[in-house]
Specification:
By secondary structure, this protein is mostly helical. The protein is 33% helix and 7% strand.
């Protein structure tokens, strides 16, 4: 039997997907280890690692709620990220073409889309951080000024380009 050589990916080369990237960034922002977060939500560290690296793309609702509570994230935002996550390597989301998720239906759209191709909802042009008031690009998950998670609710959305 031929022996396959394991190729380790560089840290920055990992395609975490929408959900994994959101969880990874929030965990690092809070200074938690994978073991600490996994213990807090009742899972093991390898499971959380697989979620953060995009190996596991479907996370059950109870785990989503536990992650949101532990990492101070919006549950709806995590569900939207989970439902927009690629389900197989050939998915266009991996290639970077389909990364903008609709806030109304969760459908993945091209980065430059102004309207959702599934439900027709208009995408906001920017998101205002509730913590510091900074205006961020609408696909952003975290504020570029204070680092706090940006909520997905429409009360924090601004429809004008900054």
């Amino acid at each position: 039997m031929a022996r396959r050589k394991l190729q380790k990916r560089a840290f920055n080369d990992i395609d975490r997907g929408m959900l994994g990237g959101l969880i990874f960034t929030a965990r690092r922002l809070h200074g938690f280890t994978q073991s600490q977060v996994a213990a807090e939500i009742g899972r093991d560290r390898p499971w959380l690692s697989d979620v953060e690296t995009g190996k596991i793309t479907f996370v059950p609702e109870d785990d989503i709620r536990a992650l949101a509570r532990t990492l101070d994230l919006n549950t709806r935002q995590l569900i939207t990220a989970r439902d927009g996550a690629p389900s197989r390597p050939g998915n266009p989301a991996v290639a970077g073409r389909w990364r903008r998720s609709c806030q109304s239906c969760g459908h993945s759209n091209p980065d430059d889309a102004n309207y959702c191709s599934n439900c027709g909802a208009q995408f906001p042009m920017s998101v205002v951080c509730a913590a510091c008031g900074r205006t961020n690009d609408s696909p952003a998950n975290f504020c570029t000024h204070c680092g706090r998670a940006l909520a997905a609710d429409s009360s924090r959305m601004a429809r004008t380009r900054s």
